[in-house]
Model the fold of this input.
Amino acid sequence: MKRSKRYKAATTKVEQKRLYTVEEAVARVKDMATAKFNEAVDIAVRLGVDPKKADQAVRGTVALPHGIGKEVRVLVLAKPPKDEEAKTAGADFAGFQDYIQKIQQGWADIDVIIATPDSMGEVGKLGKVLGPRGLMPNPKSGTVTADVAKAVKEVKAGKIEFRVDKAGILHATVGKANFEQQKLIENVQAFLNTVARLKPSSAKGQYIKSIAISSTMGPGVHVDKNVVVH
Done:
């Protein structure tokens, strides 16, 4: 892969075989985020699990202390009066049949969908459309709930969802490169501590195998997995 001069210059600031503390990694990622836009800061955690086994398909949510630096667009699929509760709580869109029809027609200008339990009969039919986009509401992630106001406020405040992929890796955005260093550190630690707590009882051997933090356009910085609280 051909790399830009900017990328190559950034790689000189990282020792590829060294494992950094979270504080050191965040400092280097911020220093290497030199693109002309405000880059996202992402984290990738390789787990020692078998995602094909249902009891090892690690997924969860975490309320990042400082959010991800992005305005999250929230749709709540609910019947009256829950739709109005959602709007009052800050949902960008709220309704039922009209939005189901819009989604069926290809509309997807949203980041998170929250649904009430009584709406899931209809929402479930959208699985083939929403599933591949990672938008399908799920009770485990708190996006299927009768308390739509609480769910909307949590998402707007910085609650994110994550799920291990087929390769056994968790990917998440934990902020922006222009965040204060301490805020990024606290977001990273909150994410890693949550992942550690979700270790499946059936997973054998080493659970967290590797951790890397990077900006959108920058190289990854490997973090010492021993810093994670178990």
Notes: The chain has two domains: 18-67+160-227, 74-156.
